[in-house]
Amino acid sequence: MYSSTITEHEDNKNRKSAQETENGRNSILNQPAMHMPAEQPLIWRNIIVIAILHVTAIYLFATRYREAKFWTWMWSIAYAHLSGFGITAGLHRLWAHRSYRAKLQLRVLLIFLYCMAGQITPSKWLRVHRTHHKYTDTCADPHNSNRGFFFSHVGWLMMKHHPAVKQYGKNVDMSDIAADPVIRFADKYFILIMVPMCFILPTVIPVYAWNETWDISASSVLVRYVLGLNFTFSVNSFAHLWGNRPYNRYAFNLSGSRLRDYY
Predict the structure, then answer these.
(1) Which of 17, 55, 87, 137 sits a CA distance of 20 to 30 A from 32?
(2) pLDDT tens digits for 114-158?
(3) In degrees to the nearest 10, what's the CA dihedral of 211, 215, 216, 217?
(4) What is the residue-wise DSSP string for 14-25?
(5) Sorted alphabetically, which keywords does the UniProt record give (predicted)?
């Protein structure tokens, strides 16, 4: 009796949540601006940085990274998985979707693991992700997959947001995030935490732990960093092209099972 009541309650919650999301999506679709292109100036700084990062990572992987010692490879793989865990178990499952509860110690650990990935401040990441789910595949979706593979993968980072993203993103409830002291701390000291965790620490340890050369150690960090970014980007691009709906039958957005499990 208790089990069936819980199941019915969760089913009603899913139905209500999906309906609210669908209503929000329809409110966007019914706006005239939804069907008109908007001016989105390019952010040349982002374009140049993204291009340099990828060209450099490809070059280093082809020339220097292959000379790395065995433990440097293992270190890079382990670091990538730990930072990925900070994204998927931390910002994604815990903070963005509130899939479970976590004590202070675990929240602190997860936020440090997230900083190892070297992305954006936690609160900004969470607002983008919640806006994406609330208005999936509309102009209010920051990485709207209807605008093509490249845009949803990385192109959306190369230009200003569509006006609808800013307009409707304000409707996303972020009160729980603003009330979390761990998120507030990470936002305030993000650069001071992220730079050592993402770049300095993983470069120094291989050099002093197993005598890796400085150039190869630094190269491995850059390659790992760029690959990690593209794993995250792929959830927005590949998953929406070839994803499925394995969990909530009321949800209209797609999620690639393999990529979702990692990020």
Answers:
(1) 17
(2) 999 999 999 999 999 999 999 888 888 999 988 899 999 999 999
(3) 60
(4) HHHHHHHHHHHH
(5) Fatty acid biosynthesis, Fatty acid metabolism, Lipid biosynthesis, Lipid metabolism, Membrane, Oxidoreductase, Transmembrane, Transmembrane helix
